[in-house]
Amino acid sequence: METAVSIPSDLFQQAEELAQRTGLTRDELYTRALRRLLKAYRDSELTRQLNEIYEHEDSSVDPVLMQMQLMSLEPEEW
Description:
Layout: H1 9-22, H2 26-54, H3 63-72
């Protein structure tokens, strides 16, 4: 899809320089940057939702289950 956006001149210049240094086309650079921003937003939104849930829910591990898990591990020297 082709579209036009307006960005500040100094930001555009920095992006152009980065694209040149990394060998990316302008399209590739902006696509990667936008994907990264969207992923960071999704991750932070998911974290916010989980924090909201566990603010009211007990997330501790059952002591019996924890003991069973520990017993299943091979002894290891440090």
